[in-house]
Amino acid sequence: MKKSILYLLFLIVFILSACSTTADSDNAELSVLAPETEMTITSNKNQVFKFVLNNDKDEFYNIGEWYNITPDFISDNSEYAVFKDVTFAESFIMYNGEVYSIGTCFGGFGITSMALADINMDGQYELYYTFSWGSGLHRSQIGYFDPVSREVTIFDYAYAGGPFSFLSSEMILTVNASGDLCVNSAIIDLDSFVDFSIKAQELIGTIVLDEDEITLKLYNEQ
């Protein structure tokens, strides 16, 4: 009898412990992963063959000289891989074998920085990135890939220099001491489109969840 009671008590404690662990896991907050002030990209050929094999966006892109530019902190903590052409700076994301375009790069540097963050708090990392383009009017923008919807979203911009664009300069994603995903102006030291370093300058804003929408809050409007 005593053994049955002890066994029953052990079973109850085990179940409660398991439920508590599951709840904590489901509600676990993913920390922002991004450089604090500077990012250096060193290219390699890892998974390039798989990328080219799966890239059916346009036959033109498959004749480029592609490189893997995924930072270690992204490849070590997610299924994302980022590829870039050394000649034209075209950039793509590969996630679980599927390839997604990040947006136009014509006249600019393509992807210039990356970060992982779970801004919508669904328990999965979105991939955030900055990229530049523009022939005649150089601009930088911010985009992100949502692994749940499998969609790329690019924050709106305005030709006159609206709140979601940055003209005539680069941007970099950073993390501050509070763990926020920040956006800074930046200077870039370019060896090539696939090998470069980029360094943060002035703080522009933070990327936050505002009324269930991922958005950029400008520093001077917060």
Q: In short, what is this structure?
A:
With 222 residues, the protein is of the alpha+beta class.
Question: Describe it for me?
Answer:
The protein has 222 residues and is of the alpha+beta class. The chain has one domain. The strands form three sheets. Strands 1, 11, 12, 13 and 14 form a five-stranded antiparallel sheet that branches. The longest helix is centred in the first third of the chain and has 25 residues. The radius of gyration is 21 Å and the shape is globular. The protein starts with a helix and ends with a strand. About 13% of the residues have low confidence.
Give helix and strand order, one letter per element, not per position.
Answer: HEHEHEEEEEEEEEEEE
Helical content, roughly? 10-25%
- Proportion of residues in extended strands: 35-45%
Structural classification? alpha+beta
Low-confidence stretches: 5-27, 158-163
Helices, by number, come to 3
Defining traits:
single chain; five-stranded antiparallel sheet; 14 strands
Topology at a glance:
Elements: H1 2-26, E1 38-41, H2 48-54, E2 66-68, H3 72-75, E3 80-85, E4 91-95, E5 98-101, E6 110-117, E7 126-133, E8 139-146, E9 151-154, E10 166-167, E11 170-175, E12 181-192, E13 195-210, E14 213-218
